[in-house]
Amino acid sequence: MTPFDAAPGSGAPRAAPNKEAAPNKPEMAKRIGSAVVLAAIAVAAVVASPWSFALLIAGGGVAVAWEWGRLVRGTRFDRIAVLQALAVATVVILVTLARPELALIALACAAVLIGLASAPSGTLGWSLAGLAYAALPAWALTWLRSDETFGATALLYLFAVAWTTDTASYVAGTLIGGPKLAPSISPRKTWSGLIIGAMTPALVGYAFALALGGTSGLRLALVSVAIAVACQLGDLSESAVKRRFGAKDMSHLIPGHGGLLDRIDGVLIASLAAALIALRDPAGPGRALLIW
After folding, report:
1. What value does the CA radius of gyration of the chain take, rounded to a whole number of Å?
2. pTM value?
3. Which residues, listed in sequence order, are joined to residue 21 by a DSSP beta bridge?
4. What is the pLDDT of residues 183-237, one digit of tens each?
5. How far apart are the first and last CA of the chain?
6. What are phi and psi of 14, to 5 degrees?
7. For the chain, how long is the longest CA-to-CA vector?
8. Which letter, b or e, does each residue of 68-105 get, where b requires 16 or more Cβ atoms within 10 Å of its Cβ?
């Protein structure tokens, strides 16, 4: 048995629900309301300052650590979740202070401590995966925001692409339907939703290029498609993990959405894709993402 094979409270994976029910109208109203509130908080934190955004990301890291531990270890806020939350907060602070070398050391130390704490319980692999799932996107998002000139705009662009991907894929899957994308992972996702959800954000990229000036609309549109694909991979990955542990939602933290991870799963992986693209100019990640 590998470290990824142990489910909380038993030695075997739990059975996953057979299908996902479509949200009814009251539930949809909750989803829309929660999404608007979360989007407003995210945009305000991004625009206000790098430190307000760092505070938001650190707080999100605490929630992600709690939800991950709740899912894979069947616990609430145990010592492993505390270590994960502290690691995310430390990484965010150090990256904001432009000390990536110290952030890397802190992350490595956290991985060792979490490994030691989780090995006896048989959840070593999942606990380390939780650290990576929380800390690496937090690093990527904070680093993108650190660009004084283009940081805020880069994050607004990233969020616009992710939100457009989610909305377009949902609408296409509902109105067009068609063959299922991965029925064993997420029965409601369709190929039409994947394709429309990946292509529609090209319009977001082109619109940002027009607004910014001095950049290629076609290239930024293609970048948007790549980020949208990463966003959908993040959504599918989280669905696969939930099915592995027989859970419908990561938690009940957000009305209409379940947990925070249920809402930001796509953004987490999309942020890694954006950061990899931005490595073409490490001194100006926001500019590297937007200006082509």
Report:
1. 19
2. 0.88
3. none
4. 888 888 899 999 999 999 999 999 999 999 999 999 999 999 999 999 999 999 9
5. 48
6. -85, 155
7. 57
8. bbbbbbebeebebbbbbbbbbbbbbbbbbeeeeeebee
In contact, 261 and 250? CB cutoff 8 Å: yes
Instruction: Return phi, psi of residue 256, to 5°.
Output: 85, -15
Q: Which of 18, 47, 292 lies closest to 156, judged by CA?
A: 47
Find tokens 């990955």 and name the residue: 237
Do strands 186-190 and 180-182 pair parallel, antiparallel, or not at all (unpaired)? antiparallel
The C-alpha angle 175, 181, 185, rounded to 5 degrees, equals 115
